[in-house]
Amino acid sequence: MKIAVLGTGMVGETIGSRLIELGHEVKMGSRTPDNEKAAEWVRKNGARASQGTFKDAAAFGELLFNCTMGVASIEVLASAGAANLDGKVLIDVSNPLDFSQGMPPSLTICNTNSLGEEIQKAFPGLKVVKALNTMWCGLMVNPNMLQEGNHTAFISGNDEGAKAKTREIMHAFGWKDENILDLGDISTARGTEMLLPIWLRTWAALGTGAFNFKLVK
Prior knowledge:
Layout (H helix, E strand, L loop, with lengths): L1 E5 L3 H12 L3 E6 L5 H10 L3 E5 H7 L2 E4 L6 H8 L8 E4 L4 E2 L7 E2 L7 H8 L4 E5 L5 H5 L11 E5 L2 H14 L6 E5 L4 H5 L2 H11 L11
Helix pairs in contact: 3-4
């Protein structure tokens, strides 16, 4: 499959590299066609890796990952062009975190709204699925790196087919179906985005991102 990864940070690099390992073609999108971080990622990942602008990547991808900083996600997707987004699945792993006042960051959207909802409203032709946003990127693509492999990932979205496609990708990453909890429509992304304050404080207390939440009933 041709997949677009929007964003050149650690999350985008990790997801893009894992998708390459799984045999997909991946184009990493950034603001400029010659972004040096994207170019280095391409050099490391071989012939199935390429780079371009956000618009280039969105046009290329049959499926897209939003790995941009949440405060910039709407702007990034607008620059990608609605025509390049319509009808496609966007797996949104971003969170609306504001680092302008230092650590820990605050949420710019919460309680009665979410970034996932804002993206869906801004781009109604896009099939937004909020997923994998409650964990460190190493676990996103390899849940079995923890000794206790059974832990929880959440998904939220309005389109059942898009959520099924997201599950397929997550299964390929190593997620067991019973550990993927469908919370419902995109409004339920409010809950997963609001997990970030406790996630960040847990990360600070443990000194590592190699942990996750597990639901027990």
